[in-house]
Structures are given as C-alpha cells and as structure tokens.
C-alpha cells in the first residue's frame, strides 16, 4: 500500500494530534514526525492540514502554545495538552475504538448475519 | 524544550505579533524539513526546494492561521472584559454589603431624588413637552376675542359670528366650537329615578372630526343631525358609558331620556378623549349633543371657537387672516350696528395653539418645578459624592495597595464608577416605584384643577429619563471621588499618617466645598418655597366678596313652564318662596337663597347698562356679569350689602330693581350713594339700584373682579337654580340630608344631587397654586434635610479626624465648652458661607419666580428671614451632635489611640 495515499478521515487528525501531545509539549514538526514514526511511516500528516488543525484546537482551548527553543536552538512554538484536551482525547479515543471495532467486524465477516426474527 | 534564556523575555515588549508568529512557526517547520533532507544526503539548495514543494501553498496556510488567530483574539478579549466586569460587580456588591449603613442611606437619598425627578418629568412631559394627543395636533388653534373683564360672554362668539368666521377665513381645514355655558349636572336621565345628574355639553356638529377623535363605538354626529328639527342624538363619554350603562356593548342605537326628551345614542367616545381634561380641568363631561346654531342664534355669545389649520399654515399667518376677518364678524347679522364689535379698543382677536391654551399658563410653574427637582437631584448627588469621599478616606489604603499591586488608575476609577452606578441604579429602581405610586395618585386627584391630569402615567419616556438621570448622577458624582482617590499618593496612603495628613485635609476641603453647594441649593429652594407659601397665604387672605365657610350649594330642580313670561315668573316665585322658607326652618340653617350661576364657575353677561342721564362712548363700557337671585341669596352667601335686599314683592308687577357691585357703583356715581339711582339698558330696561354689594371674585380667586349686576328672580329669567345654604354648624354637610328631604317633598322630581361646599369651590380654584406650592415646599424640605445630612457628615468626620488634636488640647487645659464652641463655629462658618452663596442664587432666580407670586415681592423679607432661620437652626442641630461627641473625648484615650 502506498503510504502517502493513506488519507486521514476528518476528525481523526485532531485526535492523533492530541494523542501525540500526551507525551509532552511538541512543536509542529515534531508532531508530524511522531505520528509518522508511531504509525511505522503509514500515516503522513500534511503540513497544509496540520497547522490549521493545531490552531483550531488551540482556539477550542484543547491545547495551548508557548514559544520555546528547539533542540537545535531555534525559536519554536510548542504545543501542550490542556485538561480539556485530555478529557476530549479520552472520550474521542473510546468512540474511535468502538467505531474501528464495528467497522472491523463488518469487514472481517465471513458469513452474512443471522436472519432477524421479527 | 529547553529553558528560555532571560533576554528572550524582551522580544514581546511591544505585545504579541500574531502574523509574525505564524510566519515564524511555519518557517521553523520548513527549516526542520530542510535539515532532515540534508541529513539524508540532499544538497542544501535542492533540499530547500524539495521542502517547500512538500509543504504546498504556504501562503494559504498562513492566511488560514491569521483568520483563526483573529477570531481567537476577539473571543479572548470579550471574555476577559466580561470576567473583569463580573469580578468588579461582585467585588462592589461585597464592599457595599460590608457597609450597609452607607448603602441604605445613599440608595434612599437617590431614590427620593430620582423618584421626584421622574414624577415631575412625567408631569412636565404630559403638559409641556408632548404634543396634545390628537392627530396633527399642531394644526389646532384656539380662537378667542381679546380678553375683557366680562367673563365668558366676552370670551365667546355668537352663532352668526361663528358662521362669518368659518366662511370668511381662508386658512382653516375646518372651524368648530362648543357651547360654553353648560353647567355641571345639567342633564338628568329622567327614565332612571336613581341616576345622578350628569353633565352634557353641546358641540358644533364637526367638533370631534376637527379634533380627530374617532369613536370607540358607533359613529360621530352627521351634518344632518345639527340642523334644526333633526332627530335628537347624543354621544357618550367612555367613562360615563362604563359607570352609568355598565359598559353596555349594545348601547349604540338605544334611546335615553335626557331632561324628558328622548335622545338616541349614536356612539361612545374613546377612553383617550376626556373633554374636561383639555377644556375644563377638574370637571367631567358625560354626554355630548350637537349644537343647533339656528335655535341659539339670538342667545348672543355662546360658543368658543377652535380650528384646524390647513397643512403648512403658520400661527402668524392665521393671526393675520383672523385680523382680516374680524371686522366683518357680527354679533347678530340683523343688527348692522353689531358688526365689527368683536375687537377691543386697542386689542383684537387672539389666536394661540390649542396646546398653549390648555397648558401654556402653567409653563412657568412647571419650569420652576423642574428646576426645583433638578436642585434636589444636585443636592442628592453632592450628598452621594460626599458620602463616597468619606468612604474614600477610609478606603485610601485599600486602593493604594491595589495600585501598588498593579491596578491601573483607569481600573480603580472604573471600580468606583461602577460602585456609584450600582448605587444610582438601585436608587433609580426604588425611585421608579416611588414615582409610579406618586403619578398614579396624582392622576386620580380630580380636585386639582390642572389640565390633562387624568392622562398622567409613567411611560417609556419617563423610564428613559430615569435611566438618563441615574447614569448622569452616577458619572458626575462618582467621578469626583474616583479621580481624587485614584490620584492619591500611594506612599502616603500606605504609610497612613492618619489624622491630619495632607491628603485628608485636601479631602476635607473638597467635602466642605460640596456641602457649601448643598447648603446654597437648599437655600434657593427654601426661599422659593417661602415665597410661594407667602403668595398662597395672600391668596387665602383675599376678600372674595363672600364668605365660603359653612355654606353649601345644591342644584334645585323646578318647573316654571307657563304660557307667558309673567305667569312663569309668578309660578317660579311661589316655588322658591316656599322652598326657601321651608329650608330656612331646618335647624342649623341660617339663611338660604337661590342664584343661577355660582361664583368661580361659569358666568354670563347681557350688554352694558348705563347711568341714567349720562352719555358714554359706544363700546366704552364693560358688560357686567349677570346673576339672577332670590331674596336671601346675599345673606346666604355672606356678602356685605348696602341698601336693601330683594323681596318677594320685587315681581313682574313691581318696580324694576337691581343690585350692583361696588366697582360699578363707584364708576357711575363716584362719591355718591348709588342706592336709589337709575340704570338704563339693563336686562329689564330701566331699573332702580336697590342695593350695592362688595365685589365678588367671579372668574377665579386670584383674578381681579369685574362689574356685576344682580336681578330679582321674578323680574329676570334664571338659567338654573343653585340653592345656597348658610349654616351655623361646623360641618355644613350635616344639614344636607334634611335639606334634600325637604326639596324632595316639594318636588318629587328633585334628583339626589350632590352638595358642594363653597369652600371646596374656592379650594378648587386655588388648587393649582396649592399643588405647586406643596410640591416646591416638599422639595425644599427634602433639600434642607439632605443639606443637614451633608453638614453632619462633614463635621462629624472632621471631629473623628481631629480626635488626637482635640485630645491634646484638652490635656493642655481646653474646656469642654471651648471644644464644643470650636466645632459649632466650624459648622456655622459652613452654613453662613452656604447661605451667602444661596442668597446670591436666590436673587438670580427672583425673576423666574416673580411671575408666579401673588401680591408678594420676590424680595419678601419674611421668606428670606425664614430661610436663614431654618438653615441656621438645622446647621446648628447637625453640628451639635459631633460637637457633643468632641467635647466628650477623653484625652488619654485619644492619645493612646493610633
């Protein structure tokens, strides 16, 4: 499977960003690389969507930002989770998992469901 | 993330830069990418290109960022603002709650001041500011002959003159009028035995159309219904329809018997139209009938005129048009000599807007009233300012600490303004409640003869005015203490050098200046109230020409219908001779007599009689007011008589006699005794003067008297019969029931009419003056007590501040009397300076108030002396309490303290 083709469903990016920040404050570039590495290069986050998503999350007060210095001594904007963001991540994760399980069940089915008894 | 070095903290010295932030953030991303690519073995140049290619449209992302950032910023600012305000409000509530005494006193003061302002605004708005409640009411004008001293007959026009004026004028859409001589209680519903007498009035057919009044039910009069011999129709006032006919929804088309004549009800007028409210304040008109101009053609002057101007016509244009028409007006077209006689010698027809006619004469009084409440507001505001300053002194430390912790000056001022705003709005809320009850009470005071009083209510405009007053008060009087406090020296305040520090001295000076203003305003109010009170006393002292106390009057019904005048007069004489003798026999009754028009009400005149044997220029003599009276009337009214009273033998067969008033007698026979002299051209031809009575105030209590002539009941035709009874009991209404029983025995048709006391008629005539006097007086008292409160506050505070000083002085041997004297001296200094300022202010407004006074000079020494006395007394009283406290300071305690 071509990895760059793997498009993220709407809303999925938000939850991935929140998850990425659970380990500590990160700047934008670090978030993309974290997601890429964590998914074994399967998920590539495009810059064009990453930053607007970050800013939206910030305006919803799920994450907050602060300027800091990067490893190579450059000024970088670091994002970190707020308690609101953590709460959101927890609930969204549950929903996502239930969803994924349901989808998997349907896709992995080997025989049609039993006839419903009316 | 590494630790940020110290210097980095300064790159935000000029606040955040959103755009640059976004750019930097994206730049950093691209740089990271380039670094990574180079690490993978790309050449730097190619790596940069590749990184930018991978990123895509960097500008679009940048713009999206700016958009989101902008929105965020806005939301944040709003929520910051909101939470600041909420915090301030909560803080203010807490501080106000901690000092309930201060809060209650300030809210109370403000409630009184704002309530008074709202009420007076409602009255002023109702009478002066708002147009009359008729469509296009600016077009309505009142048309009247020049003012003369002969009562209503000289203020009205004849049928012929009305028609000439209507046809000759070019500036009106329509001209109308009403019959001016209807007395109260002139209509009886003959079919309903228990019905109280009602008041009806004849109006020219198009009256309601000209005013623009639409009926609530049914229709208005048609042109046919005003013609002679037309079917009798009537319109009911809304109030009368409600209480007499229980708001019968099917009243239109029903026939009611009025004075034994059947009338068909064609409609009911709307609630909003109250004839009395505009044209005869204090009276209720119940029924309206169309005036038959032909039938009344020979009755002389009977109608008052009003017209609706064509759109765009100004009052001066209308006036010049009226001047053009005036010479062609005839009292009676069949008497060519009567044409062109409506203009006076050096005055002529007068046009004014209907609004000016209705409320114009009250303008001055209302302006004075408005100024008075304005002064009250100012005093209350100054008081509030003073209270806030006193608090400021005790809170200086709190604000200094807040300032030291970084609160900006603006923030502290905002906090203080919020405090005064909240106080002022609480005051406004209570003030509105106060005004609501006051205005509601006023609108039901039928006894006060003010126009449009019944229409008074608290409306949106009054509400808006209240808000405006509250805000202005809060801003004006919250700002002074706010600025003072915020500009305070932090260092000084925190150190709290306490009593005697420079800061508090300055505070004290400001407070003293404020109290000075208060005292001055109170002084002006007191002088005004004093002058009005003096005028009112003078009015009450006026010799009315009759004695109103212990006398009552009631309308008597009689039937003197007879084939000819002489028989009718004899019949009338018999009826009233019996009536008066029987009523006089009732215990408690001293005298009784009958007149057709009571003084201080409607009146009429019948041309100008002359002394026999003298020549006078045509039109140079005024028309005396005419009264037709029975024997005993002069005595019942308590009038002073020279000569003889009429007797029952002054009948159609006897010699024609009249009684005249002394002004008339003095004019015709100066220096001679008028009794026995002969007048020619009276209503009964040549008549001998039987007696001379003192002048009676006929129009109103305050207006000077005119000529009056009295005819015997059996020699001239009375228009109605008002039985006047003089009693020797304290409560004249006590004899009313026996009088009514006697009248009923004599005439079963006599309705259960209401008795009026002559005193109540006098009271009604002076009621507007009493009303204004009481209001201004109440405001003056309010102002005085507020000023007292202000003086007390300042002196008491200064004593508290000087506790230490006084303690030292007492330790060094000052006596308690000495300390007390010093404090009182300080008080008196304040009061005297305030009085001087107030005296200057009073002189300044003397011109405004002079026109409202009656026989009182605006420099009336008694009013000024009273003011000085009252203010000094109150000042001493409010200075005495702190003085006593000062004299009881224990030196040791005072020194230990602090």
The main pleated sheet of chain A reads as: 3 strands, antiparallel
**What is the C-alpha radius of gyration of chain A, as a whole number of Å?**
18 Å
Overall structural domain count of chain A: 1
**Number of helical elements of chain A:** 4
Count of all domains of chain B: 5
The order of strands across the largest sheet of chain A is 1-3-2
Our Rg estimate of chain B from Cα atoms comes to 39 Å
Helix content of chain A: 40-55%
Topology of helices and strands:
The complex is a heterodimer of chains A (118) and B (898).
Chain A: H1 12-21, E1 26-27, H2 28-38, H3 47-59, E2 63-69, E3 75-81, H4 83-107
Chain B: H1 18-39, H2 44-55, H3 58-98, H4 100-129, E1 140-144, H5 159-168, E2 172-179, E3 200-203, H6 207-211, E4 217-218, E5 233-236, H7 238-244, E6 255-258, E7 261-268, H8 275-279, E8 287-290, E9 303-309, H9 315-325, E10 350-353, H10 354-359, H11 363-404, H12 409-442, H13 460-486, H14 490-495, H15 502-540, E11 551-555, H16 565-584, E12 589-595, E13 610-611, E14 625-629, H17 633-637, E15 641-643, E16 657-661, H18 662-668, E17 678-682, E18 685-693, E19 708-712, E20 722-727, H19 736-746, E21 756-757, H20 758-801, H21 803-811, H22 816-850, H23 861-887, H24 891-896
Parallel strand pairs in B: 3-8, 5-7, 14-19, 16-18
Antiparallel strand pairs in B: 1-9, 1-10, 2-9, 4-7, 5-8, 6-7, 11-20, 11-21, 12-20, 13-17, 15-18, 16-19, 17-18
Helix pairs in contact in B: 1-2, 1-3, 3-12, 4-11, 4-12, 4-13, 11-13, 11-15, 11-20, 12-13, 15-20, 15-22, 15-23, 16-19, 20-23, 22-23
């Amino acid at each position: 499977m071509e990895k760059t083709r793997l498009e993220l469903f709407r809303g999925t990016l938000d939850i991935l960003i929140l998850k990425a920040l659970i380990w500590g404050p990160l700047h934008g570039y670090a978030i993309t690389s974290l997601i890429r590495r964590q998914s074994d290069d399967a998920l590539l986050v495009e810059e064009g969507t990453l930053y607007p998503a970050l800013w939206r999350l910030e305006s919803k007060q799920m994450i907050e930002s602060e300027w800091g210095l990067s490893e190579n001594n450059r000024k970088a904007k670091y994002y970190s989770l707020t308690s609101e963001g953590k709460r959101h991540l927890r609930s969204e994760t549950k929903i996502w998992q239930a969803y994924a399980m349901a989808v998997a069940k349907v896709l992995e089915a080997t025989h049609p469901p039993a006839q419903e008894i009316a | 993330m590494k630790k940020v070095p110290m210097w980095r903290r300064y790159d935000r010295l000029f606040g955040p830069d959103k755009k640059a932030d976004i750019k930097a953030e994206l730049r950093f991303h691209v740089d990271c990418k380039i670094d990574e690519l180079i690490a993978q073995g790309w050449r730097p140049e190619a790596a940069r290109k590749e990184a930018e290619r991978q990123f895509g449209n960097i500008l679009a992302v940048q713009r999206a960022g700016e958009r989101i950032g902008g929105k965020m910023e806005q939301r944040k600012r709003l929520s910051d603002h909101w939470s600041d305000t909420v915090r301030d409000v909560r803080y203010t509530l807490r501080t106000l709650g901690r000092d309930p005494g201060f809060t209650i006193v300030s809210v109370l003061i403000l409630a009184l001041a704002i309530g008074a302002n709202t009420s007076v605004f409602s009255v002023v708005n109702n009478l002066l500011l708002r147009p009359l409640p008729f469509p296009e009411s600016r077009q309505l004008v009142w048309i009247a002959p020049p003012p003369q001293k002969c009562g209503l007959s000289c203020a009205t026009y004849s049928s012929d003159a009305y028609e000439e004026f209507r046809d000759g004028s070019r500036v009106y859409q329509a001209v109308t009028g009403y019959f001016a001589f209807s007395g109260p209680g002139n209509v009886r519903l003959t079919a309903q035995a228990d019905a109280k007498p009602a008041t009806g009035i004849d109006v020219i057919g198009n009256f309601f159309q000209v005013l623009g009044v639409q009926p609530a039910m049914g229709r208005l009069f048609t042109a046919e219904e005003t013609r002679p011999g037309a079917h009798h129709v009537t319109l009911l006032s809304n109030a009368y329809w409600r209480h007499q006919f229980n708001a019968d929804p099917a009243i239109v088309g029903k026939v009611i018997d009025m004075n034994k004549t059947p009338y068909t009800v064609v409609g009911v007028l709307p609630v909003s139209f109250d004839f009395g409210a505009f044209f005869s304040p204090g009276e209720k008109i119940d029924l309206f009938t169309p005036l038959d101009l032909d039938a009344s053609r020979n009755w002389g002057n009977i109608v008052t005129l009003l017209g609706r101007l064509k759109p765009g016509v100004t009052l001066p244009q209308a006036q010049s048009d009226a001047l053009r028409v005036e010479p062609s007006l005839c009292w009676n077209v069949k008497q060519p000599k009567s044409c062109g006689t409506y203009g006076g010698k050096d005055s002529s027809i007068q046009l004014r807007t209907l609004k000016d006619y209705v409320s114009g004469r009250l303008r001055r009084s209302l302006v004075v009233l408005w100024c008075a409440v304005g002064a009250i507001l100012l005093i209350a505001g100054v008081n509030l300012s003073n209270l806030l300053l006193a608090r400021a002194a005790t809170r200086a430390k709190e604000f200094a600490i807040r300032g030291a912790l970084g609160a900006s000056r603006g923030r502290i001022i905002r906090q203080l303004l919020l405090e005064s705003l909240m106080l002022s709005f609480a005051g406004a809320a209570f003030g509105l409640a106060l005004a609501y009850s006051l205005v509601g009470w006023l609108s039901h005071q039928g006894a006060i003869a003010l126009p449009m009083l019944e229409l008074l209510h608290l409306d949106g405009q009054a509400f808006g005015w209240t808000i405006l007053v509250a805000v202005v008060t809060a801003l004006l009087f919250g700002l002074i203490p706010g600025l003072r406090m915020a500009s305070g020296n932090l260092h000084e305040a925190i150190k709290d050098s306490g009593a005697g520090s420079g800061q508090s001295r300055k505070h004290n000076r400001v407070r003293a200046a404020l109290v000075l203003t208060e005292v001055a305003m109170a002084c002006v109010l007191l002088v005004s109230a004093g002058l009005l009170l003096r005028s009112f006393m003078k009015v009450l002292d006026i010799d009315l020409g009759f004695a109103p106390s212990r006398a009552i009057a009631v309308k008597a019904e009689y039937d003197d219908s007879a084939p000819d005048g002489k028989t009718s007069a004899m019949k009338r004489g018999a009826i009233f001779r019996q009536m008066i003798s029987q009523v006089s026999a009732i215990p408690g009754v001293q005298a009784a007599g009958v007149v057709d028009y009571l003084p201080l009400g409607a009146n009429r005149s019948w041309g100008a009689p002359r002394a026999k044997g003298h020549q006078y220029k045509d039109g140079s003599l005024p028309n005396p007011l005419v009264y037709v009276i029975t024997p005993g009337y002069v005595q019942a009214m308590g009038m002073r008589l020279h000569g003889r009273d009429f007797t029952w033998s002054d009948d159609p067969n006897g010699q024609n006699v009249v009684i005249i008033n002394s002004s008339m007698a003095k004019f015709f026979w100066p220096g001679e005794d008028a009794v026995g002299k002969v007048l020619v051209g009276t209503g009964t031809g040549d008549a001998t003067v039987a007696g001379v009575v003192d002048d009676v105030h006929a129009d109103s209590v305050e207006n000077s008297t005119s000529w009056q002539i009295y005819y015997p009941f059996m020699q001239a035709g009375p228009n109605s019969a008002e039985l006047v009874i003089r009693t020797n009991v304290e409560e004249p209404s006590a004899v009313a029931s026996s009088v009514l029983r006697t009248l009923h025995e004599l005439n079963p048709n006599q309705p259960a009419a209401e008795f009026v006391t002559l005193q109540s008629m006098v009271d009604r005539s002076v009621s507007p003056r009493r009303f204004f006097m009481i209001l201004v007086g109440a405001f003056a008292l309010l102002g005085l007590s507020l000023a007292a409160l202000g003086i007390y506050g300042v002196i008491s505070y200064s004593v508290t501040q000087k506790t230490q000083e006084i303690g030292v002085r007492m330790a060094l041997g000052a006596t308690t009397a000495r300390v007390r004297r010093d404090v009182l001296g300080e008080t008196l200094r304040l009061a005297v300076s305030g009085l001087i300022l107030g005296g200057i202010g009073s002189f300044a407004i003397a011109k405004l108030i002079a026109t409202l006074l009656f026989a009182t000079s605006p420099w009336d020494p008694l009013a000024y002396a009273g003011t000085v006395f009252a203010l000094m007394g109150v000042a001493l009283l409010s200075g005495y309490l702190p003085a006593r406290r000062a004299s009881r300071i224990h030196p040791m305690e005072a020194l230990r303290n602090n």
